[in-house]
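Try this one yourself first.
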């Protein structure tokens, strides 16, 4: 997230960084990775067992996170060699799992940032002859803040939670739809650069798509999903909860109280501080961020301690697995169920 106020009256800037790939290595799934709806895991929810389809695993999530948040990428600052490595990784991932480039290539060059920087944008066209003309953007920013003043000899702000976590989640969702092709509406998967510079990547893409008169239905963003919420009766919250019925729709497809309301998110205007916001401004459609950072469960925002080894990969895999039926339901509903309030 771009700017966030801390719970202790101090101002906190919550943005995400930049990345690059050394030797681009795309994780190739085994046959057992493919979700067919038959593999089921059970998780306890308020005393009841809830079935969660298994598509991704903590092992797979961990492998991706350990690359994207590695020291080799030097904190993924926008315009750096490190973020270039991440960009190549994402491009290869999209190509490997059946996503077509949305533009002439996967790269969308930012027009509002001085250094060469790129959003990476792929598409899975919808299967329905009519609904495929409606689009859903599923996004996350893959940049971070690069290198900072050293702490105990460590100067790399790896950005594992912020936002390799959201990037990994979106890549796994892209893998599902790219290989399974179960969506009737068209899905645009966008990984944004220069979020940490002021939401510049998402601002650039939102304006570009608006100029092209894209028929956008909704924008669903993922930010800081690397550690679980504590003491909540829901799994994830959305920013701008009261602005649409997305939480209700999400919970219906999830079959549980998956998405909740975090008062702190409203208090500190988190709706305006992540990559959902430029799409809200340009299109006026439901545009929200799914997040599991609540100011109490993570102490390493924009610090060198934001490392992959403190992320909860099991939690991250569960989030992806729980979100897939939600995204599939939204993509395939005969009418546009998500409405602005």
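Now uncover the answer:
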């Amino acid at each position: 997230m771009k700017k966030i106020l801390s719970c202790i009256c101090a101002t906190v800037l919550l943005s995400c960084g930049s990345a690059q790939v050394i030797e681009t290595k795309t994780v190739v799934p085994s046959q057992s990775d493919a979700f067919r709806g038959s593999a089921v895991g059970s998780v306890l929810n308020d005393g009841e067992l809830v079935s969660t389809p298994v598509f991704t695993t903590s092992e797979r999530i961990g492998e991706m996170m350990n690359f994207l948040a590695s020291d080799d990428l030097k904190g993924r600052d926008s315009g750096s060699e490190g973020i270039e490595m991440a960009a190549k990784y994402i491009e290869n991932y999209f190509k490997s799992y059946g996503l077509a480039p949305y533009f002439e290539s996967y790269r969308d060059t930012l027009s509002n940032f001085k250094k060469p920087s790129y959003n990476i944008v792929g598409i899975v066209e919808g299967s329905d002859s009519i609904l495929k003309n409606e689009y859903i953007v599923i996004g996350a920013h893959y940049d971070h803040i690069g290198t900072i003043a050293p702490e105990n000899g460590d100067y790399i702000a790896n950005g594992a939670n912020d936002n390799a976590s959201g990037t990994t989640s979106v890549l796994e969702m892209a893998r599902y739809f790219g290989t399974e092709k179960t969506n009737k509406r068209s899905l645009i998967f966008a990984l944004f650069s220069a979020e940490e510079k002021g939401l510049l990547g998402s601002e650039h893409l939102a304006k570009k798509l608006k100029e092209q008169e894209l028929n956008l239905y909704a924008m669903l963003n993922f930010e800081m999903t690397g550690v679980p919420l504590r003491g909540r009766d829901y799994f994830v919250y959305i920013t701008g909860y009261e602005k649409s019925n997305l939480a209700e729709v999400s919970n219906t497809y999830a079959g549980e109280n998956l998405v909740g309301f975090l008062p702190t998110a409203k208090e500190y205007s988190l709706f305006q501080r992540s990559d959902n916001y430029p799409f809200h401004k340009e299109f006026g459609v439901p545009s929200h961020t799914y997040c599991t950072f609540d100011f109490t469960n993570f102490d390493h925002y924009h610090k060198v301690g934001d490392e992959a080894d403190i992320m909860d990969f099991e939690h991250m895999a569960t989030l992806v697995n729980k979100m897939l039926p939600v995204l599939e339901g939204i993509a395939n509903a005969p009418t546009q169920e998500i409405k602005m309030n």
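Discussion: The chain has one domain: 4-26+56-332. Residues 4-26+56-332 form a domain with the Aminopeptidase fold (CATH 3.40.630.10).
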